[in-house]
Amino acid sequence: MKDNQSLWLFAVAMTVVIFGASCLIHAQRIAKTDSGPLSAAETSSSNGQSQSTPTSPESAAAVDDGWHLVVSPYLWLAGAHGTIGARDHQASFHATPGDLLSHFRFGLMAAVDARRKRLVLPLDVVWIRLADDKALPFPNLNATSADVNLTEFILTPRIGYRMLDRDKFKFDGLTGFRYWYMGQHLEFSPSRAGLNFSGSLNWVDVLVGGRVVATLLPKVEVMVAGDVGGWGAAAELDYRVVGVIGYRIKPNWTLQVGYRHLYVDYRTGNSVFALTTSGAIIGVSINLK
Q: Can you tell me whether residue 218 is helix, strand or coil?
């Protein structure tokens, strides 16, 4: 419990720092614009002469009021560990990336990023299904094997504002929610014992966070993002941190590698679900518009 409280305090502190810094930067930028020297258009008006007004990169960006869409399918090579339980029975577990891949049956992982001017709409979805069947060494159960199916679905839509928009550095303030669904189905074969079981958990955590995008080289870009939520409204704590480096192989195609860490601690009634999932990310980013 002390560890969870420390993580909660750390996450809140990081959120306050990120938003405080971003708001300060944005306020300074507005103040500088308001108190800055006269523009070329204003100078020409005061002199009664007509002069051409050069177009700055920011002016060009302001003119671009169309929508931009980027789709990024990826593979998350994650391991997991934590504690799960129900009805006063809890168990700890640990699974390596190899363990999860060996039981992998279906998956869909992708990020979608829509943007118009300074409005950003990132979306992330993870949908995986794991399965296993084991022979049972207990003849008294009247069953020879058990089939286990686990389904995890995580949907994270967010909305944000691009507080800092430079050619080589961008910062987005974000808010949104993360929807969790965890389902399991246990079936014995033959099923004469009547021990088949199905159950699920689902909840929604409100999030706040931020994202930084920096261009290191003409073809190399780095993205670091994080969000935090829960606060006892649904989960006790729910946070994610991700870092990705991308290399542009074509004008609209970028290869990406990185690392993601996701933690959730959800407790309700007799159920406990405390899970840490982390591992490498490999994917491609496609600029569609």
A: coil
Q: Which residues contact 247 (CB under 8 A, 6 or more apart)?
A: 219, 220, 254, 255, 256
Token couple for 158: 């967010």
CATH for the 2-287 domain, from 2.40.230, 3.30.230, 3.40.50, 2.40.128? 2.40.128
Instruction: Supply 69's token pair.
Output: 């869409």
Q: Compute CA 201 distance to the chain's CA centroid, rounded to the nearest angstrom.
A: 20
Q: Which residues pair with 201 in a beta bridge?
A: 182
Q: Is 145 helix (H, G, I), strand (E, B) or coil?
A: strand
DSSP label at residue 281: E
Residue 21 or residue 199, greater confidence: 199
The DSSP-derived string for 155-208 is EEEEEEEEEEE-SSEEEEEEEEEEEEEEEEEEEEES-TT---EEEEEEEEEEEE
Mean pLDDT over 8-29 rounds to 45
pTM summary value: 0.74
| For residues 234-249, average pLDDT | 96
From 209, 284, 217, 276, select the one nearest 244 (Cα to Cα). Answer: 284
Joined together, the tokens standing for residue 27 give 């306020």
Answer whether the bond into residue 57 is a cis peptide, omega within 30°: no
pLDDT of residue 137: 52
